[in-house]
Amino acid sequence: MMTPSQAAGSDAGGPDDLEDRLSRFATIWSRAIFPVTATSLTRPEFEEHLLPLARQLSEALHTRPFDPAAAQRVGGALVDAHCTDPDALSRTLGVVDAYLVLYCGSGQESADDSRARCARLQHALAAGYALALRERTLTEQEAIARSALAARSVAMEALHATETRFRAVFEDAAIGIGIADLDGNVLEVNDTLTRMFGGLEHHVRGRKVNEWAHPEDRPLTWNMYEELVRGEREHYRVEKPFYRNDGTVLWTNLTVSLLRDADGVPQYQLALMEDTTERRLLNLRLRYEATHDALTGLPNRTLFFERLEKALAAGEGARFGLCYLDLDGFKAINDSLGHSAGDRLLVEVADRLQSCATAPGEMVARLGGDEFVALTTGRETQREASELAARILAALAAPITLDGREIIVRGSIGIVEGPAGERTSAEVLRSADITMYRAKSAGGNRFEFSDPEADARAITRHGLTTALPAALERGEFFIEYQPLVHLGDGRVHGAEALVRWSHPQHGVLGPDHFIPLAEHTGLIVPLGRWVLQEAVRQARAWHEQAEPGGSAPPLRINVNLSPTQLHHPGLVADTVDVLERSGLPPGALCLELTESALIGADEDLLKPLRQLAEMGVDIALDDFGTGYSNLANLRRLPVSVLKLDRSFTQGMQQHPADPVDRKIVEGIVSLAHSLELAVTVEGVETGVQAEQLRELGCDTAQGWYYARPGPPDRLHALSLADAV
Question: Coiled-coil stretches, from where to where (predicted)?
Answer without folding.
Answer: none
